[in-house]
Every structure is written in structure tokens, then in C-alpha cells.
Protein 1
Amino acid sequence: RSWWDHVTPAPKDPINAVTEAFLADPCPYKINLGVGAYRDDDGKPVVLQCVREAEGKIAATNFLESTCAAISSKLVEESAKLVYGEDSDVIKEGRFAGVQALSGTGACRLFAEFQRRFYPDSRIYMPDPTWSNHHNIWRDAQVPIRTFHYYHPDSKGLNFVALMDDVKNAPNGSFFLLHPCAHNPTGVDPSDEQWQEISSLFKVKNHFPFFDMAYQGFASGDLERDARAIRIFLDDGHLIGCAQSFAKNMALYGHRVGCLSLLCDDKIQAVAIKSQLQQIASTIYGSPPIHGMLAVSKILSDPDIKAIWLKEVKVYFSSFSFLFHSLFTSIFIITCIRTIGLMHLLIISTCYKDMATRVQRMRATLKEALEKLGSPLNWQPITNQVGMFCFSGLTPDEVDRLAKEFHVYMTYDGRISMAGVTTKNVDYLASAIHEVTA
Ligand code: PLP
């Protein structure tokens, strides 16, 4: 008998399973729509200019321990400014406990552990659906999980009434996990007014909002705009928790840079909470790696590099994106050259390749292509939804047919990663989707 007879394979991660099936397919025109990482229009991973600039500057950094601790607190400080606002009282008064974390996953895991230690009888309420790993993270931290209504399959939008009911019916003082923008996997976010109502009800019910901010900048291309849900809660005087990831908005997946911050009543509380978070981290993984942290810290604290980053995630001209796909393209370009000059137009066109814009452009193109094919289904949600993902409403059978007959791979919940859609494959993808849904 072996020591390990009783160990059976763990269930496959749904996203890794898609990648495996994609890699095993020899078809030259296969498409991977499972991956949650940004790709350029050639389907290639991207290194942002701001990252290149930052890496150039940190190349000569002396990795002394004391330097690292100082830079790590710089990272935490700058990350907190990004979510809570440069001028917020929380930042001015130092009323938060923040620690560097192993990207968004690590930040969630730290918080789940913290929750179990200090609120051992509590549960976590998470949206249905949510990123599948949220369930694994809180399960492994032994925090009981409940779900709340979020997505309405018929409208392919938010089920706001049911959501509010669930918030109301949860016991007072419950922990809630919220996606502040670019909800994964649905791409459906509450409006500002709805966030306001949610925040007011949280106040009445004394619930704790924990925001998982994995995609700041991906919903609108504007980091401030994407933090609005959190600012609404902040204005209402909530104490908030927030997990931040720089994996997507700096395209730094492999470096695992993130931050966990918890708002506190005062500085004394902040010191106590920070020490507890550090202690939890030290027993799980010691300390996080430093290279990515140095790069992020440089991007956030060097005004010139930060400006490049903001530009890289910003949507330029998004409201005019349809023009690039219409008969009026050439007229439009000539008019632009006349009015703003060739140089400006070239700059704007370069910006056009930026992350959030490319994703938005692909949404519009995919929807148009499906409509042109005469699909009787309503594809409006493709452009209504925001962020990296599109919750298409495709059934598991249709997803299966897409893989087997058309070499198009996505998770069984019908989630399309828009980053995998390019100008070269969008028409083929539209006809494949049309075939399986017709
Ligand atoms: N939270 C959400 C909602 C996500 O979608 C993801 C990644 O897909 C994460 C957290 C984890 O991101 P990271 O790669 O930073 O760990």
C-alpha cells in the first residue's frame, strides 16, 4: 500500500480545462475564449510601455531588505489612493490597514483567513455567479458561503430586485463580496444609482462590503470612474475591505502584485489589523516576491510613468468607435486630419490599440457581425456588458458544439473572454456562434 492511494485528482479548474483542450487541438484557426488575460489584436500577450519604462528604472535597484519594506509600503499607499481617492480622508488620516498581497487571489485569501479568525461564526455572501475561485478561496478558509441573486439570464442584466431582497434578508452584520466594476463572469455592473441604493441598505443592515477589485480600468478605461462604487460606499461612511490586483490593468499576470486594504476607525486600529494581516501572510508564504512590486510601485509613484499607464488603459474616442467600421471611415479620417492635424490623429490612432478600447471595439464588431448574419437573438448585451468578459447566454450544449465543430473554446457557462476576440477571428467566431444558436 502506498502513502498516497487515497489521493484522487482534484476537480479540474474550469478555465485551465479550457486552455488544455485548446492546446490539444491542432486546428490552425482555433480560438481560445477562456483565458482571462489581456491579448493584443494578434492574440499575443502584451507588455505595457509603462512596465518597460519602470523596469528600466528599477534595473539598478539594490534589493536591500530595508529598501523593500519601504517600497512595499509605498505600493500599499499608492494602491490605496487608487481605490479610495488621492484626497480621501482615509488616506490623509492613515485610517487603513494595507498589506502587499499575492495579486488579487492572495488578497482575497488573506481576507478570508482574517475573516475566519476574527469573525469565526460569520459567512460570506457572494454574487451568483461569481469568479469560480471565490468559492474555493472562502471554502478553504472554512468560511461558510451563501450566494445572493445578481444576474438575470432572461434580461442578461442585473437582477436588482432579487439582489436587494437578498441583501435585506441576510442577517444584520453579514459579510458581502462585491465586484466594484467589470463583474466576472457576467460583465454586468450596477449603475451608480443602484450602487447608492445598495450602499444605503448595507448601512441599514450594518453589512460589511468586501470589494474584489480585479479589473480597475477595464470597465470604462478610466481608473477613477471604475472606483465609483467604492467611493459611493466611502461617502456613506462604511468601513470597507478591498482586494486589488495589478495582473490585468498592468498586464503583469506572472508577477503576482496586489494589495489588501481594510478601512479602520482610527490609526491605532489600523496598526493592530495590519500586524494581524502580516502575521497571517507570514505563515502562509512568508513574504511576497519583490520584482513586480518594484515595477508597480514605480509606475504608481513616478508621475511620468503613471501618465503613460493611465493613457494605456484609457479609452480614447470610444464613443466614436463605430466610425472605424462604417462606410464613413475615410470621410471621418479626412475631416479629422483637417481639424486636428495628422500628428494628433496618429497619436489618437496609437491610443486606439489600448486595452479597454480594443475590448470595447471587439464587442461592437462581434455584435454587428451576428446581426449581419441575421441572427434572430438579441445580442445587445454584448455591448451593454463591460470589462474583459461577455456572458453570452450560450448553453453548455452550444459551448460543446463550438469546441467540437468549430474549434472555439470557452467555459461551459458561456463566458467569452473578449481579449481572445481579434479583428482576424471575429467574423469566423460570429458565424460559428450563429451556426450553433440558429
Ligand atoms: N478576482 C476576480 C473577480 C478575478 O476575475 C480574478 C482573476 O480572474 C481574480 C480576482 C484574481 O486575479 P489575480 O490574477 O490577480 O490573482
Note: The chain is about 50% helix and 10% strand.
Protein 2
Amino acid sequence: MKTLYLIGFMGSGKSTVGELLHYDLGISYLDTDQMVVEKYGEIAAIFQQEGEDKFRDYETEMLTKTSPENYIVSTGGGIVEREENMAFMKNNGRIIYLDTSFAQIADRLGNDPSRPLWRKNQKDKQKLYQRRAKWYRQLADFTVMTDQKSPEDIAGEILKIL
Ligand code: S3P
């Protein structure tokens, strides 16, 4: 099976759904955020001490380590900030977009301190969401609307199209 890349904004459920697919399909699972944390330390600390650009370098490094076959890969919401990442996923696997409304994301994340880019003011967060939504949509081979659905329902929809 071609590797599945899960994309979407912070809080859209990529990691939870990714782990469910990993168990359901019995294939390996990677999470680019987790890979960065294991090699370079906590994300909030990287943003604070080295800056966002350095974090993007680490994230790109991890993405390019993923294989084109038999993996479920959850990506960070900002993976689309680099064109090379978008090209890499397009050339190497199938891309599934978890499409979650801004209202639902705001509800889920509250004031989560572990996500540095969620600490912006409301207007800037909305701008970031809108800018990225366009890229997610363009990139996706398949989109799942996730509002009001459980992670199990979302994983079930993805399994149906495989
Ligand atoms: C980010 C999203 C986070 C993480 C980092 C930056 C972003 O991942 O990579 O905080 O730029 O949207 P999640 O989408 O898993 O929250």
C-alpha cells in the first residue's frame, strides 16, 4: 500500500486518527512532530530557542525520512509551509486531509500552551487557518470532513477508500 500522509490544521485529529489506522491496518506509524521531539526536544522549546524556521528544517528532515510504501504518517499542521514538503508528499504517497472547522479547532485546543502558533491572537489564528486551508485542499487526494465525528468514524471513512 502507498504511504498515507494525514494533513490538516492543528487539532484536526491527525495523530489520533493516524494511530487508529495504524492498528486497523497493521502497518507502521510515524508522526513528524514526535520524530522531531525524539531527536531535537520539545517543540515549544525549539520555537522559543531556535525559532520557527529551524523547526521547519527539522520537520522537513523528518518528513523526508518517511518511506513511500506501507506507512501511516501524521504531519504537523505547518507541513504545508514549505513547498518542498508538499511536493514530497505528492510524489511519495496518498494525501488525506482532515478538514475541521475553525470553531471546532478553537473548541478543542482552548489555550494549549504546547502549540506555539496557537498562542497568537484570534484574528491571526484565523488568517493562518484560511491561508493553509487553501493549500490542504489543493494537495489532498481525499478529504474527510471531521466536525461532529469521532476519530473512529473518521478512520472508518478513510479505510473505505483504500
Ligand atoms: C504546527 C503544528 C503542530 C506542530 C508545531 C507547529 C503548525 O503540530 O508541528 O506546533 O505550524 O501548525 P499539530 O498540527 O500536530 O498540532
Note: The chain is about 55% helix and 15% strand.
